Amino acid sequence: MIADVAVMDAFESGVLDLPDFYFTGDDCRYRFEPEAKERFLDLFRERFNTGARYGGRVLKWDTVIERKAMELGRYLVRGSGRLDLCEPSPRLSSYDSSELRKRILTLSESQARKHGIARSTYYHLRRSARSERSFTMHQRTRMKLERK
Fold first, then answer.
1. What is the extent of the structural domain holding 43?
2. Cα angle, residue 3 at apex, residues 141 and 130 outer, rounded to 5°
3. Which of 25, 33, 129, 148 is the most buried (most CB within 10 A)?
4. Residue 89 shares a structural domain with residue 113
5. Average pLDDT, the chain
6. Are residues 27 and 62 located together in one domain of the fold?
7. Which has the closest alpha carbon to 111: 127, 125, 131?
8. Which one, of 133, 138, 142, 146, lies nearest residue 18 by Cα?
9. Contact between 108 and 115 (Cβ < 8 Å)
10. pTM
């Protein structure tokens, strides 16, 4: 499931796009360019290094997967107990929304300045908000935008 979320993240964030793929007629498979593989693997590693709340603690995903595998082993050997392979579940975090895009596009340059948003950041946000692609922003900038 974390791999699925990483793939969705890759396309949402623009790390992967359709031009990164090519069709090989000899074995009827799609492959992707080496540079795209590297970009995806970086994102995938980053995903695995994020924390997940499990057992009252925040653990890295590789540790969670290891513990879930041990739970499965105990469940299969003992045949008793409870097995929950759904928790924790990875989250696909959306960094933007139509409401946020609308807020950015209706924000004037003087209002942005009043919120403490630099001119270059303001123009970058407007360009990103007009794009169809998902975009990210620093937490501080998001907090400045949320101020009334």
1. 1-48
2. 35
3. 129
4. no
5. 82
6. no
7. 125
8. 133
9. no
10. 0.50
